[in-house]
Amino acid sequence: MKVLVIGASGATGSIAVRRLLDAGHQVTAFVRDPARFAPAHERLRVAVGDARDAASLDAAVAGQDAVLAAFGPRSLKKDNLQETLALNLSAAMRKQGVRRLVNLSAMGAGDSRPLAPWLFRSVILPLLLGHVFADKERGEAVLFQSGLDLVNVRPGRLLNRPSKGPLRASLDGRGLSAMVTREDLAAFMVAQLGQPDWVGKSPLVGY
Fold first, then answer.
1. What is the pLDDT of residues 22-78, one digit of tens each?
2. 29 forms bridges with which residues in the sheet?
């Protein structure tokens, strides 16, 4: 499979790139700054571009079988970057005939807010992450309205720790931990590129 990874130089995206290559896929890493992306592999190419640049996204999407978006915000300030990415990416995918998109969102976004831990939804989100989540939710809305085969993955707190094992997923989050390792999150997202179970949904993931 030919897979475009958005946010490939980020903490989760870089793990997804490695896992995709280990599984034998051809990977295009979409990055803003190629100097931050060091891996070299015979099945890896780098596409330089920006979320706000529709032309660079369109060129990167061309010829792909699927897209994995592990794009994270750069600032806590009010912005429309994630919404802009969703608009440009969904337009490029429709134009190029690419259907499958696995998108990294977060527990607490959209209708999952009541399911997030109390401290996060009542204190951290409104005081620190309000602008980030507002932008994220606008982006989610664009993606769900796009008609793409979208899997919108919502993890809790991300940990830079070794793998603990496969993640479980549900829509209500019942019985799931609020923290996951990036290793296991990347593995779950990569698996969704070829599975139908969560298409059109926003699974919460945990152990």
1. 999 999 999 998 888 878 899 999 999 999 999 999 999 999 999 999 998 778 999
2. 5, 46
Contact between 143 and 152 under an 8 Å Cβ cutoff? The reply is yes
What's the CATH class of domain 2-206?
alpha beta
Residue reference for tokens 């996951």: 180
**String of DSSP letters for the chain:** -EEEEETTTSHHHHHHHHHHHHTT-EEEEEES-GGG-----TTEEEEE--TT-HHHHHHHHTT-SEEEE----S-SSS--HHHHHHHHHHHHHHHHT--EEEEE--TTSGGGGGGS-HHIIIIIHHHHSHHHHHHHHHHHHHHHHTT-EEEEEEE-EEE-S----PPEEESS-TT--SEEEHHHHHHHHHHHTT--TTTTB--EEE-
Q: Which of 3, 47, 51, 48 lies closest to 23, judged by CA? A: 3
- The whole-model pTM stands at 0.95
With the CA atoms of 105, 139, 35 and 155 taken in that order, what torsion angle do they form, in degrees rounded to the nearest 10? Answer: 0
Q: Which two tokens stand for residue 76?
A: 């806590």
| Packing angle of the helix pair 182-192, 11-22 (nearest 10 deg) | 60
How confident is the model over 120-168, as pLDDT tens digits?
Answer: 999 999 999 999 999 999 999 999 999 999 999 999 999 999 999 999 9
